[in-house]
Amino acid sequence: MSAGRVLVAGSANLDFVVRAAHIPAPGETVLGREFQTFPGGKGANQAVAAARAGGADTRMLLALGDDAHAVPVEASLREAGVALDIRRQTAHATGVAFICLSDGAENAITVAPGANAALVADDLPDLAGVDTLLLQLETPIDAVTAWATRAREAGVRVVLNAAPARILPDALLRQVDVLIVNEGELAMIAHQADDLISALKCVPVPAVVVTLGAVGCIARDGTDLHLQPAFPVAAVDTTAAGDTFCGVLVATLARGATLVAGLRAAAAASALACTALGAQSSVPARADVDALLRGDADSAGLDALAARCASSAA
Q1: From 97, 146, 161, 195, which residue has the greatest number of CB atoms within 10 Å?
Q2: Class of the domain covering 5-9+42-86+124-311
Q3: For residue range 188-201, what is the model confidence (pLDDT) as tens digits?
């Protein structure tokens, strides 16, 4: 098994983004302003982030329709240096996401999976030379479980970003080496929402990372807990912050770094991703991440992060 090779198996979409003063409430119509399209999808965003993190050859298994929406999605991945295994679907359109982005940098997203839903277990390419397999939940759960099982059997590290939130089958959890979730996703998997630390400890996965938005993240590696504060930035769009975190963390681990080092690099990259519009277009270059890491801008937030984690058990 060669270090530094990442395979991402997952979703690729074209994002339709409208900016508005606020996100509509149920039944409310909001007049938006600017409209743009951006390549997106959790899997594709994470693949771009892993490739731009540097030091890890990145490949992606994805499904696209035979349509115009596929063109910018494929072009963005190739431009980022991601090698592609495309399963072209003639009976399904390329996946799309409809995103309302508020002036406060919050978003509401609706996804039409399209071709992503046609991926199956046998689509996974050869794992020879792959160090880490990165998965999400925007493709069929049966396929994700089969891919994780095959990777575990091949001695490949399995990292699962369990998003969008759903209850996971035990057959999938048993194959995962590193689980990345937000607090809501953790609560669904652990079947408890009141105590973050307790939930973190009870998930039957060797390492679990929980992202906590603007305060940072907490991770359990075996029995050890690690806190990583967020890097403060002026956010304009948080759409791909979580995906950037996942891709950079996996690439850093694939280079042979520790989980602690990976968390810091991922936190820096995800912060920078919030300072630009779009999904893949906002993923920062390695040089920009390294420049942010040379400072100690994250250290000031440690007390707030510790208090946030402690308050969940109060």
Answers
A1: 161
A2: alpha beta
A3: 999 887 789 999 99
